[in-house]
Amino acid sequence: MILIGALLLWGFNYLGDMPISPLDALFTSTSAVCVTGLAVVDTGRDLVFSSQATLLLLIQLGGLGVMTAATFTLFLLRRPIGIRQRLLFAGGMGLEGPSGAVRLVARIVKMTLVIECLAAIPLFFVFSETMSSMDSLWCSIFHSISAFCNAGFSLFSDSLEGYATGWLVPAVVMFLIILGGVGFIVLWELGEWFRGRKRLSIHTRLVLVVTVSLVFFGAAVLALTEWDGLLRGLSVPMKIWNVLFASVTSRTAGFNTLPTVELSSLGAFLIMILMMIGASPGSTGGGMKTTTFGLLVSSAFFNTRGDSNLVLWHRSVPQKLVLRAMMLAFLYVATVLFGILLLNLVEDMSFRSLAFEVVSAIGTVGLSMGVTAGLSPAGKWILILLMFWGRVGILTFLFSLADSDESSKVSYAETSIPIG
């Protein structure tokens, strides 16, 4: 899909007035399919309409997920869907088994299209104040899909900085980011819960608690670090509104209403942490996931009380699940450190800026310090690989571990090793 997208992007723009290089086309396609949002070209200025439409299709397919899109295509064509494909889809969505996987695919696609269409309506009315009807229609559709898929691509050169003092556009975009970031399973369960048909699972409760906690924690810390700096000149309500938006978009989407490059060092560090945590399982976003972070924090809290058994909402969490969360977190941190090392070896730029780009690529977020377009070919290749690894590689690695979950039959005597 990435290669086909790259060929289309390069071909359409090669025939246009503003051709882009094959490497930039590959970078843009990877960023779209991996719903990252890092850009080496100006989407609204440098891409012709056909390239923008191709980019939007890649974002939509990437947001739904390759397995979801493939399964839905077979469903439409009335083709049989094998047990292996059902299992792969179930694993990606966080389901315990393949039962009901095909019905869930149809619901996911329907839910996605309905949410994106409804959200495009208020955006259209805002955009139509400053542009023609056709341009505002395209702009509203593009940003609605990009926001729900947590991609962060914008047709505006400064992302959403032009709406930093507005209410409606940031509100709609935040709403879409949160809906796309909590995951399709959570959205479906919430719908069933509101109808009184189903109780919320532990997964959904954990996702909601961690998501809300991170949004308000991130906003509070950003307010403390940026109140008299980046936020200077805004009214108090607008300061609060913008830090809320920044906290929401930092974990998954990559839109910005304030210039990211002007963040303080502490503010940039906080956003890097939020980008690492990311969205929730089965969602359109990336990162190590909110459930992973929630399990690690909860496990640490229980261990400080001398209790090795993790209990959430009167349910015991298996130790192997906690260990898998630890492995995922370690893998992400190790990849980030390795990526920062590699990028600093090939680029002569600010360490903070390069580290920020690496975390944004691995977390498939898309926020940037403005250095992505100026990277060397080697630097762009590094970010391409990191985006792909962040979206597909780590997940595939964990699935392979889940498939080979066999404990050793041999038991050895315990030993003690001093730590700390």
Automatic annotation (TrEMBL):
GO molecular function annotations of the record: hydrolase activity; potassium:chloride symporter activity
Pfam families in the cross-refs: TrkH (PF02386)
Record localization: Cell membrane
The enzyme's E.C. designation: 3.6.3.14
Protein name: H(+)-transporting two-sector ATPase
One GO CC term on file: plasma membrane
Organism: Dethiosulfovibrio peptidovorans DSM 11002
TM segment ranges: 20-41, 53-77, 104-125, 137-156, 168-190, 202-224, 260-279, 321-342, 354-375, 381-402
Membrane-topology annotation of the record: Multi-pass membrane protein
UniProtKB keywords: Cell membrane, Hydrolase, Ion transport, Membrane, Potassium, Potassium transport, Transmembrane, Transmembrane helix, Transport
